[in-house]
Write a structure and sequence with these properties.
By secondary structure, this protein is mainly α. Helices cover 47% and strands 9% of the residues. A two-stranded parallel ribbon has the order 1-2. The relative contact order is 0.17.
């Protein structure tokens, strides 16, 4: 960051379908969590190779609506070292 501007170094998008089943079961499902964990492990490796000093994971409605959403964020912070933020409606 220079003068308050952030330069994009790398961009990658992966659709993990974390919210699969949240509407009907009100929980993040183990298979969906596993998909996210696999993606985050890959992201962590990329971030380390790029020398990232700080990381932020932003969570939206699937995590917000799930009964186990906050526990999931805590696990992500502990397991991968990402700072997490839940977007409030």
């Amino acid at each position: 960051m220079v003068d308050g501007n952030v330069d994009e170094v790398h961009r990658e998008t992966r659709i993990t379908r974390l919210g699969e089943g949240v509407d009907s079961r009100k929980r993040l499902l183990p298979v969906a969590i596993a998909r996210v964990r696999n993606a985050l492990a890959d992201y962590r490796r990329t971030l380390e190779s790029l020398g990232a000093e700080r990381t932020l994971l932003v969570a939206t409605s699937a995590v917000r609506d799930a009964e186990n959403g906050e526990a999931f964020l805590g696990e992500i912070e502990w397991s991968y070292g990402f700072t997490t933020q839940l977007v409030i409606r």
